[in-house]
Every structure is written in structure tokens, then in C-alpha cells.
Specification:
The protein is of the alpha+beta class. It has a single domain, classed as Gcn5-related N-acetyltransferase (GNAT) (Aminopeptidase, 3-Layer(aba) Sandwich), CATH 3.40.630.30. The chain is 34% helix and 34% strand. It has five helices and seven strands. Strand 2 and strand 3 form a beta hairpin. Helix 2 packs across helix 3. The two termini are 23 Å apart.
Length: 173
């Protein structure tokens, strides 16, 4: 499955499917910034709010689509300060629970890294819940662990959990 980059209009068009993916991710216990239960209207609104950032070039969003169903997504948030334009943050890497274990997260991660390289980004960073399955993916794909912040964010059930920070140097293409 080849990830598709969603510009602002396509992001708005796909907000419903992306909302379903976000809800599935939160229901599955992933700490992606939301508490359970995540209401559909809130999830749709959150994705629609991303369109302005995409239109301004501050956010790039990819979706893996199975027909009309979004089964995975990843985004890059580009720095807006002159002294950090070589950096971008990898955000919201999500794969539906029924699509996991097939390499889709690696494919999405690869698409984001390739696009970052093409955009002249040389340093990526991210944070993820400590002990989550995502940590294995990041370590296996060359990301470097920086450290852990205790009680950084609540998981979907409202329990404060530590977050681990990672970075990756990438070559300019």
C-alpha cells in the first residue's frame, strides 16, 4: 500500500475516514493526545483543523488507503522558526488495529522520511509513550533515544505516562 500525500482539500475530503482511524487508535489505547472515549465529531473537527496547517506548508500528511478506508497515517510538522528549518517533527503515526503487523507503519515512516529529505530537512524528532510498541519500530529504523520525561502525557484512560524522545539524522537528497 503506497501512502498518499493529502493536500488541504484532500485532507478535508478525507476527514471522516481519518477520524475513524483516530478513534480506532485511541480505542486501542495509543497515546496520541486524546482521551477515550473520543467522540466522532471531535475527531472530524481535529482533522479538519489540520487543513490550514497543510495549506500553509507547516504540516504534511500522508494516508494509507484501502479503498475509501484510511488504515494508516503519518504527518510531518515543519519548523516555523528560521534557526530550525532543518528540523521537522514526526507526528501522529497511526495504523488501524486490524491493519497492523503488515509493515504499514514502516512504509508510512519511510514516506515521511523521504519527503523530509526532499524538503531539505536533516533532523527529525518525535515523542512516543515509553514502553509502547512504537518504540520498537523507531529503534529498529535507526532512531536514537534521547531520554524519558516522566508523567509527560495522559494515556487515553487519563493515566499519566512517561514519554520517550527520539531523533534521527537524515541525508539531504
Amino acid at each position: 500500500m503506497i501512502p498518499t500525500r493529502l493536500d488541504a482539500p484532500r485532507l478535508l475530503d478525507r476527514a471522516q475516514e481519518l477520524a475513524d482511524l483516530l478513534i480506532d487508535t485511541v480505542d486501542g489505547g495509543a497515546s496520541v493526545g486524546f482521551l477515550a472515549p473520543l467522540h466522532r465529531a471531535d475527531a472530524v473537527a481535529w482533522w479538519r483543523e489540520r487543513a490550514d496547517q497543510a495549506a500553509a506548508g507547516r504540516l504534511a500528511v500522508w494516508a494509507a488507503l484501502d479503498g475509501e478506508r484510511a488504515v494508516g497515517t503519518v504527518s510531518l510538522a515543519f519548523a516555523d522558526k528560521p534557526n530550525s528549518r532543518h528540523c521537522a517533527e514526526l507526528v501522529k503515526l497511526m495504523v488501524r488495529r486490524d491493519a497492523r503487523g503488515k509493515g504499514l507503519a514502516r512504509t508510512l515512516l519511510g514516506a515521511a522520511e523521504q519527503a523530509a529529505t526532499a524538503a531539505g530537512v536533516t533532523l527529525l524528532h518525535l515523542d512516543t509513550e515509553t514502553g509502547s510498541p512504537a518504540e520498537h519500530l523507531y529503534r529498529a529504523t535507526g532512531w536514537t533515544r534521547v531520554g524519558t520525561v516522566p508523567d509527560y502525557a495522559a494515556n487515553p484512560h487519563g493515566v499519566l505516562r512517561p514519554t520517550t524522545l527520539y531523533y534521527k539524522h537524515i541525508a539531504v537528497g
